[in-house]
Sequence to fold (239 residues):
Amino acid sequence: MMNILSKILDVILPPRCISCGKVLNAKDGVCEECFNNINFISKPHCHKCGMPFENVVSNKEIMCGLCIKDKKPIFRYGRSALRYDDFSKNMILAFKFMDKTENASTLSKWMFAAGKDIFSSGVDLIIPIPLHYTRLLKRKYNQSALLAKKLGKLASIKVDYSSVIRAKKTKPQVEFSGKARLKNVKNAFGVKHQNKIKGKRILLVDDVYTTGSTLKECAKVLLKSGAASVDFITAARTC
Fold:
């Protein structure tokens, strides 16, 4: 019965490319032309944070300069599916601000593929970066929570939407750069249920990694609350 309803729905509302809007023959997410224009992040990249390397050929696990210098890393591992560029940003911005919530399905599949080594290392709990309630009321949905929900189903891992809260209303990170981003989100997060966090290997989920300030600030409160480790996966990253 569900298969019949699904086929009827596909006739009425056929699946479309999440980038250009072209009607697709199957629910693949993007058309072939758009798929070929997407810059997926693959090896070689930093073994720790996932930053892609330019003009590097290596089959070994290598780290970027920042991760080598960091003697007390906040994250165990970090991965992102796509480079945030002129092509991919349309998919991300439409998903984040234009109610294209259906994009979460395709983006999460790419994130799941990008984070294979994180999942194989062990994850107990997935947590999306929370929005402040005022921004949630305005936007009507948390894009990170939608990605986390899909990712949780793909990985068969529980998603916790309530243990981490946005305790402080901050300005959008896009308005800042560099150290100002870190200052903007300082003390922005809190943990409500420490018992759910203690001893757990946590995977944080967000849409875009720019400087990592938001993810790092959230990770700090999780580690302070007793998390065994914190990783992150984002749909895209700028660097």
Remarks:
- The two ends are 46 Å apart (CA to CA).
- Residues 51 and 108 are 19 Å apart (CA to CA).
